[in-house]
Each structure stands twice: as C-alpha cells, then as structure tokens.
Predict the structure.
Amino acid sequence: MSIQLSYPVEVEKYLPEIIKKNYGKWVERKFHGPGIIEHVSETGDRVFTIKVALPPNARVSADTLEKFADLADKYGVGALRITMAGNVEFITTSLENALKIKEELEKLGFPVGGWGGALWGINTCTAFLTCQIAVVDAVSIGKAIGDALKPYFTGEIPLPAKLRIFISGCPSGCAGGIATDIAIVGMWGAPPRIREEVLPMCMPPPKALAKIPESQIFLVQVCPTGALTLRREGDKIKLTLIGEKCINCGRCKDNCDAFDYDPKDVGVAILVGGRMSNTGTGPRLARNLVPWIPANPPRYEEIVAIVKHVVEIWRQNAKPGERLGDFIERIGWPKFLEMVGVPKLAAEYMWMPDAARTYLLYRARGEVIFKGFRDAV
Ligand code: SF4
Ligand code: SF4
C-alpha cells in the first residue's frame, strides 16, 4: 500500500519501520490487562501499545518528554503518539517490553490504563494557564476529578463502557465542547460590570459609529439575549446591560475586555450523557444536569462528588457496553434524576430541553436546581 503524498508531513519518512511495513494491514487485537493492547498484522508482525494518562491539558515538561523518549528508545520502537484524549501511547514489539514500559511509567507517577470499559481520559482547556477569559481553572478541576476517578482509568474498578470527560474553563468550550459523557463548563454566577473607559477600544471609530444603527453595532449583536443595548447621548455612546436578561454567557467578554466579572462569583455547569461516536444510539450533546454550582478550589469537593456520584450510578446500573447517555435514554431522565437523588427536581428539568445551549439559556433555573442538589446529594 502506498502512502498518500498529500499528507501535511512526510509520513513515511518518520514512521517506525514496523508500522511502515504493516500500514493498513492490522487484522486482530487483544487486551493484556488495563492499558496494554496488542495488534496483529496479516504479515504475522505484532505490536503492543501502552496508554498513559498525561496531566490535565496534556502539559508535560521537556524533562518528562526526555524521560518518555528514553523509554521509547530503550523498550519501544523509538516513537510516541499523542492521542485526542490527551494521553500518550508507547509502541513496542513484545509483551515483556510493554510490561516493562508500564512498570517504568508507573514508577514515574503516570497511570497506565484507559481502554474498553474504563475512563479513557480527561481533557481540559488551558484556562488559567494562558487564557484571559477563563471563568474557572479547568486544569486544577481536571486534576481533582482525575485523582478521584483514577481507579476507573487504571482498571481497578471496571466501568460498563467508555467514559470521557471534558472540562472547559468557559462556555467557549475549547476543550472539546459538550458532545461527551460528562462535560464541565465554567460559568459566571452573575452578569459582568462594564468598564466605561475601555469600551471605546471595542467600538468602531467615532465617524463610522455615527453612521451605524445602534442595533447593528457588533458588541450589541454578540449578546444572545439582547441584554446589551446602546444609545447615543450627543456625540457620546452609552452601553447598558440589563441584568435580568443576562445569562452570564461571557460572549461580550470574549469580544471586548471592557467586561469584568466578579472573580468570587464563579462556578460550573455539569452536563451528562453526550457522545461523539455513531455506535449505540448515535451521537448527541450532553444534557444539563447541574446548571450552576460554585467552583471551590483547590479540590472542588462539590463538583468531584457530583461527577463521582453520576459515574457510580451508571457503573452499578448500566448494561455491559452501555455508554452513560444510552443508559439515561433507556431508563428515562425522570428515573435518572430519582437515582441521582433529586426526584423532586424533575419538574424543573422538564423546562430544560435537550439542546446545545440549554446550560446557557436556562441558567435562571440553575439556582433552584443547585439548591435542590445541595440539599439532596
Ligand atoms: S474554553 Fe474558555 S477558558 Fe478554556 S481556553 Fe477556551 S476560551 Fe479559554
Ligand atoms: S454575559 Fe452574555 S448575556 Fe450577559 S451581557 Fe454578556 S453577552 Fe449578553
């Protein structure tokens, strides 16, 4: 089989010999405990892949990369693969070397696991690491959840099916959005304050501004609920934010640094049951379970408790191979809420349709649901 020449990099040039030789010829696979998978080629060759979880946001130091590279050279085929879930995969040609790589990685403090019925990975955006509009520190939330869910990654506690978790520092969702089993999205708890002195930097130049109708000013248009209105007072402009209409989506802040939120009023929405794959009942967006709950660093006990609670309900009651969303669909949302421990809130959820922007547009109900959750879970 020839390699396509239109690839962005010269694939053939950089592939390990055994992968190049068996490109597209793999016919069989076998698991050897958590985190080690064997692939058999029609040529009779075999490779063993070892999956290791990286820190949140897949950040590693040059020092760690060097240690990984040494392991790949010593026991593997001299190459590493970074996965979409933010893990690293080592490849080797014998089970003995695969077990050695696993042992060495665990000695370095990196858990190995994450295939089949397991936690496959926790993705987070960069948030506080480099992003100026982050509501919460997605990375440290990822660490707290990862510590609590580690046994589900390493296979110590098997799960019914694949579990993926995305954590986004704000509703922009750079971490991968909400088509995932459990999505955690940073959300402000109150509308922003406008810094008048910075506002002109986000507006067209005065001459152009004079000719544009108020409703067509970009900053007014970005607000999805019409909470921002602009009126002219002589040659000056006045931007007003109507708090009751604001859903704290942060879109104005994404587009203009004149919007400031209270750093003490931060939280997250927790959504469940999404997926990207086309197996089972097909792809879907996660649905809002908790519209807003405060984010309390450093260990985020409330968020971690809810995530673990949901995973356990699914683990103990789902059929083998049933993803979280398929499980919820089979038993029905009211029954799921009963199992989560908030049956009295079912009526509130009736008003939250299964829609992409649910967690934004129905945030007003978030307070009611949060109180119900706080009392019940
Ligand atoms: S999801 Fe939000 S906080 Fe995270 S990197 Fe993207 S814009 Fe920044
Ligand atoms: S946070 Fe969202 S809803 Fe509120 S004013 Fe800004 S854009 Fe509008």
Notes: Residues 11-107 form a domain with the Alpha-Beta Plaits fold (CATH 3.30.70.3340). Residues 138-154 form the longest helix (17 residues). The mean pLDDT is 89.
